[in-house]
Design goal:
The structure holds 2 protein chains of 2 kinds. By secondary structure, chain A is an alpha/beta fold. The longest helix of chain A is centred in the last third of the chain and has 25 residues. Chain A is elongated and about 80 Å long. In chain B, strand 1, helix 1 and strand 2 form a beta-alpha-beta unit. The longest helix of chain B is centred in the first third of the chain and has 22 residues. Classes of the chains: A alpha/beta, B alpha/beta. The interface between A and B is medium-sized, with 24 and 23 residues.
Chain lengths: 327, 318
């Protein structure tokens, strides 16, 4: 919206005579309306109240600014505004609270979607969030991966809407396919709830990798798989034991007992300040998209086992990097 | 000359579709309903049919024969649930059955059936975008949705048995727009809107004109199959309310269901779950197939919603 002052020297002068006449009359009208003092009528330059004009324009076009504040979300419910406002908290958590050490980031291609396959731990998806923030910091918002969240988190009120705005998507084949198809990276935790809900005794021991869905997905979409080890999330909510009878009354799959939950109530949802290491492995390249390999069940099973071994190896190596649990 | 028969002429979609198609060249419109509508558009021939009567099938077949109907557009469904559960079932499910029998008897070459994406049902394990192949689970406490699910099953069975008829099923999501009114727009029209505490599902709307476009193209073209009729984009419930300037009143779901139990039963014959679960879980449909067949909608979900609320704001001054 530039102030359109018709320039007498401009070549449009002849063709735009009508146009400039209209503009001139509009300008006069504006001057008459905006001038604080009727006596100043016709006085061209100094009496013009630019402040009022600016105020008027600001009011008129301010509605466009409302867009920023009206909760624009993408088709999976990710809200950039929420991510922006949560960023200080997450960088505090990542840099000060968990002191995350990132290893092997050079293995992650920054020019195309990838499927991250990571070990799952901790009750709340801090691992997925930390990974998404790490990648966004390194490769920009367009490459921020969406993390898949298990069904039992979807059932939780308040948690589900918050996670959706931060980029969490319900873990199912259709969603992951659609995300990869549209060029967005995905973080999958093939261990699923078994991984998130394992007790402290079994920490860093990888569970079965589902039914090979992650590998099948990557083969079908033709995207590379990046194995990721996330060490430290295990200790954010160490599950001492699980109780099942009261959980069944509440309709939850299990009720965890951690050093902080349920003793401190909702405060128990705060993660412990363990030292984290996120380690990326060499990408496992898959053939081009629409590969028939996705239908080869034996191949999928073999690749899934290889992937699990690779993630386990990365976890062991990352545990070696870490000087101590809370160090 | 193509003759198009529209059942449910007095419904919003039936009436507007008849008006729109009547102005097109080369089309003859036959409107069917229980009662003659007021202000019938010029060029629409009205025939009286009561789909709830036991002999509706043969009288419909008669009309289709005599008028030599080439396309039947079936829109005789309730706009919103009524407390008359049996009546709704008679009209929606059994009425559709009569219509299918009549189409078979008259050998109608093309049939368009209006459904809704509500037939997928709000479920916690829905993917973010429901494709047309997703099982129709409906909602056990929404009797009109269950009628639609049953109707769709009848239509699917019938389609398999009658390969000579090209059947198009259109599933629009919640329709909004300057003139469309139903239970959903009434719910969003309140100043204080009760919502479910802790839930903020993504919603999807389609503008009334886009919906009518899809129906008009389905009626005039050859598009056998099932299509979701939805607008691109989604809006969280909280944004829907904020952009409309409404105040949300979050209530814990068990409390809301208990509070709304009696009024809801009286108004709709259903428990409140039948409506409020659609504001609790995700049931967004994937519209890509429909956009390919009928063209991309003019309005996104957000634009459709803005068009509806700006019209609603001005309504009292017109």
């Amino acid at each position: 919206m530039s102030e359109s002052e018709p320039d007498p020297e401009s070549p449009e002068r002849e063709s735009g005579d009508l146009w400039s006449a209209a503009l001139a009359s509009l300008r006069d009208e504006l001057r008459r309306r905006l001038s604080p003092n009727p006596a100043a009528d016709g006085d061209a330059g100094p009496g013009f109240d630019w402040v009022a004009l600016g105020e008027d324009l600001r009011r008129r076009f301010g509605q466009l600014g409302m867009r920023e504040r009206s909760g624009e979300v993408d088709d999976f419910g990710l809200d950039p505004e929420t991510i922006r406002s949560a960023r200080p908290l997450f960088s505090l958590l990542r840099k000060r609270w968990w002191r995350i050490e990132v290893v092997g980031l050079e293995h992650v291609p920054d020019d195309r979607p990838v499927l991250f396959v990571a070990n799952h731990s901790g009750l709340l998806p801090w691992d997925g969030l930390a990974l998404a923030e790490t990648i966004e910091e390194a490769h920009g918002a367009a490459r921020r991966p969406r993390f898949l969240i298990a069904d039992w988190l979807i059932t939780l009120p308040f948690v589900q809407p918050a996670l959706a705005r931060l980029g969490g998507v319900r873990a199912c084949r259709e969603n992951a396919e659609r995300l990869l198809e549209s060029g967005r990276s995905v973080v999958a935790f093939p261990e699923g709830v078994k991984g998130a809900a394992k007790t402290f005794r079994d920490r860093y021991r990888l569970q079965r990798f589902g039914r090979g869905g992650a590998v099948r997905l990557a083969l079908a979409a033709g995207v590379p798989i990046v194995p990721v080890a996330i060490v430290g999330a295990e200790e954010t909510h160490p599950i001492l034991f699980k109780v099942e009878t009261p959980a069944r009354l509440l309709g939850l799959p299990f009720l965890p007992v951690t050093p902080t939950f349920p003793w401190f109530g909702p405060l128990g949802a705060l993660p412990l300040p363990s030292k984290w290491v996120i380690s990326f492995g060499e990408p496992l390249a898959t053939a081009g998209p629409g590969g028939a390999q996705a239908n080869d069940d034996l191949l999928v099973a073999r690749l899934t086992e290889e992937l699990r071994a690779e993630v386990q190896r990365l976890v062991k190596a990352a545990l070696g990097i870490r000087p101590g649990v809370f160090a | 000359m193509t003759t198009i028969g529209i059942t449910g002429l007095r419904t919003f979609l039936g009436r507007r579709l008849a008006e729109r198609l009547a102005s097109e060249a080369g089309l003859r419109l036959v409107g069917l309903d229980r009662l003659r509508p007021h202000g019938l558009a010029a060029g629409v021939h009205f025939r009286e049919i009561d789909l709830t009567r036991p002999d509706a099938g043969s009288s419909l077949a008669d009309v289709f024969h005599k008028e030599d109907v080439d396309v039947v557009v079936h829109l005789a469904f309730r706009r919103e649930p009524t407390p008359d559960l049996d009546g709704d079932h008679e009209l929606e499910t059994i009425g559709s059955l009569h219509l299918l029998h009549a189409c078979a008897a008259a050998g109608v070459p093309r049939l368009v059936v209006g459904s809704t994406t509500m037939v997928y049902g709000p479920h916690i394990d829905n993917p973010n975008f429901l494709s047309e192949e997703h099982p129709l689970r409906g909602h056990p406490h929404a009797h009109c949705v269950q009628n639609r699910v049953e109707t769709e099953r009848l239509v699917a069975d019938w389609t398999a048995r009658h390969p000579g008829t090209a059947v198009t099923v259109l599933r629009p999501c919640w329709i909004v727009g300057p003139t469309y009114r139903d239970a959903v727009t009434r719910y969003f029209g309140r100043q204080v809107v009760p919502t479910l505490m802790g839930y903020d599902p993504l919603l999807q709307f389609v503008h009334e004109e886009d919906c009518l476009d899809a129906f008009a193209r389905a009626a005039t073209g050859h598009h056998p199959g099932v299509y979701n009729v939805v607008a691109p984009g989604v809006l969280p419930l909280s944004t829907v309310l904020r952009t409309a300037g409404k105040r949300p009143l979050p209530v814990p779901p068990p409390l809301l269901y208990r509070l709304r139990a009696y009024p809801s039963q009286a108004q709709t014959g259903d428990r409140p779950e039948g409506f409020y679960d659609y504001l609790r879980y995700l049931w967004v449909a994937d519209g890509r197939r429909g956009w390919e067949a009928f063209g991309r909608p003019l309005y996104t979900t957000r634009e459709a919603w803005m068009a509806a609320i700006s019209a609603a704001r001005m309504r009292s001054y017109r």
